[in-house]
Design the sequence.
C-alpha cells in the first residue's frame, strides 16, 4: 500500500508537472529538456492553485472545494498537453530529427563522467541527510501543523495550529496557501501531511532547485558542456557549507525545503533569474520571446505569491530591476509592457493583503 501511495505522489510531483510543461511551446534546447518541462509545468500548477485557492479561503469554503477545482484545472492542462503533443508528432519529420541528433551528438569524456558521478553522489548525500537528520525548525510548528489540520478538518485557516481551537479567518497566511498545497498532496496520496512535508517533498524540491541551477549552467556554459558538471558540483559544495546563518538560501534548502519561504529563495527567484537570462539571450540574437515564455514568467511570479506574501514584493522587484536595466541597455522600452503584465497578479495580491489584513 505504501508503494502505491508513493507512486501516486510521484505522479503528482513529477509526471503531471512534466506533461504540463510541454504546453508552453517548443524551443530547441529548452522545452525539449525534461528538466525544463518539469519546472515550468510546476510553475503553471502552483500559479493555478493560488488563483483557485485564495478566493475559496477568503470565502471560508471547505478544503474539498479547492481539491475538486484543482483536479479540474490539472485535467484541463493535461488534455491540452496531450492534444499539443499529438499535433507536434504529426508535424515532426522523424528521419530529419534523428539525423540532426546523430550529427550533434558528442562523445562525453572521462573527466566529465567523473564530475557527474561526483554531483550525483553529493546530491544523494544531501537527500540522505534531509531524510534521516530531520532538523527541528520553529516555523514547522505552524506551517506543517496547518497542512495537517487542513487535511483532517476540511477547513482552511480557520483553526489555530498551536492550540487546535477554532478562530476567525487567518487572512494573512491565507493569501500564501503553500501549506494547503501540501495538504492537497497528502489527501490525494493518502500519506500523512507531516510525512509529505518532512520526508518526501524536500527530495522533489531539492531536485527542482538543482534542476534550475543546471539550466543556468547550460546557459552560462554555452559551447563548453564539459564545465556544466563542474558548475553543479561547485554549487553543491556551496550549499553544503552555506549554513553559517539560519537565514541563508543554503540553510533554507537543506533544513526547511518544504516551507514556502525556502521555495522562494531556492526555486522561484533562481528560475526568474534564468528566465531573464533567456530573455536577454533572445534580445542579443534579435529574436522575439514567444507568448509561451511570457505566460511562464507570469506563472512564476504568481507561484511566488503562493509560497509567501513576501513573494509579491521580491518577484516584482526582480522583474522591475531587470526590466529597467534591459530597457536602458538595449533601448527597448517596449519590453517593460510584457514584464509589467507579468507582475499584475503579485501587485493585486499585495493590494489584497492591505485590504484583508
Sequence:
Amino acid at each position: 500500500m505504501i508503494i502505491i501511495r508513493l507512486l501516486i505522489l510521484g505522479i503528482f510531483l513529477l509526471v503531471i508537472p512534466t506533461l504540463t510543461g510541454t504546453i508552453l511551446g517548443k524551443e530547441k534546447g529548452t522545452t525539449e529538456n525534461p528538466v525544463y518541462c518539469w519546472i515550468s509545468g510546476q510553475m503553471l500548477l502552483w500559479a493555478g492553485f493560488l488563483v483557485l485557492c485564495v478566493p475559496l479561503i477568503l470565502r471560508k469554503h471547505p478544503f474539498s472545494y479547492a481539491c475538486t477545482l484543482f483536479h479540474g484545472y490539472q485535467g484541463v492542462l493535461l488534455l491540452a498537453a496531450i492534444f499539443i503533443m499529438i499535433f507536434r508528432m504529426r508535424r515532426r519529420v522523424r528521419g530529419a530529427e534523428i539525423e540532426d541528433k546523430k550529427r550533434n551528438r558528442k562523445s562525453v569524456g572521462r573527466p566529465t563522467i567523473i564530475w557527474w558521478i561526483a554531483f550525483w553522489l553529493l546530491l544523494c548525500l544531501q537527500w540522505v541527510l534531509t531524510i534521516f537528520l530531520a532538523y527541528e525548525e520553529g516555523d514547522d510548528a505552524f506551517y506543517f501543523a496547518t497542512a495537517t489540520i487542513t487535511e483532517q478538518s476540511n477547513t482552511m485557516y480557520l483553526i489555530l495550529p498551536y492550540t487546535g481551537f477554532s478562530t476567525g479567518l487567518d487572512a494573512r497566511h491565507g493569501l500564501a496557501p503553500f501549506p494547503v498545497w501540501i495538504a492537497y498532496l497528502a489527501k490525494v496520496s493518502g500519506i500523512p501531511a507531516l510525512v509529505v512535508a518532512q520526508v518526501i517533498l524536500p527530495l522533489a524540491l531539492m531536485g527542482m532547485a538543482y534542476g534550475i541551477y543546471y539550466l543556468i549552467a547550460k546557459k552560462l556554459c554555452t559551447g563548453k558542456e564539459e564545465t556544466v558538471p563542474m558548475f553543479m558540483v561547485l554549487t553543491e559544495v556551496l550549499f553544503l557549507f552555506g549554513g553559517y546563518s539560519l537565514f541563508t538560501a543554503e540553510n533554507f534548502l537543506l533544513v526547511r525545503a518544504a516551507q514556502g519561504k525556502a521555495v522562494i529563495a531556492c526555486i522561484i527567484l533562481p528560475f526568474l533569474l534564468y528566465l531573464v537570462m533567456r530573455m536577454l539571450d533572445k534580445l542579443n540574437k534579435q529574436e522575439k520571446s514567444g507568448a509561451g515564455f511570457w505566460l511562464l514568467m507570469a506563472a512564476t511570479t504568481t507561484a511566488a505569491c503562493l509560497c509567501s506574501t513576501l513573494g509579491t514584493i521580491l518577484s516584482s522587484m526582480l522583474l522591475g530591476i531587470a526590466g529597467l536595466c534591459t530597457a536602458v541597455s538595449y533601448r527597448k522600452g517596449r519590453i517593460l509592457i510584457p514584464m509589467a503584465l507579468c507582475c499584475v497578479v503579485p501587485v493585486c495580491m499585495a493590494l489584497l493583503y492591505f485590504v484583508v489584513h
In short: The radius of gyration is 21 Å. The chain has 16 helices and no strands. The chain has a mean pLDDT of 86. Residues 131 and 233 are 21 Å apart (CA to CA).
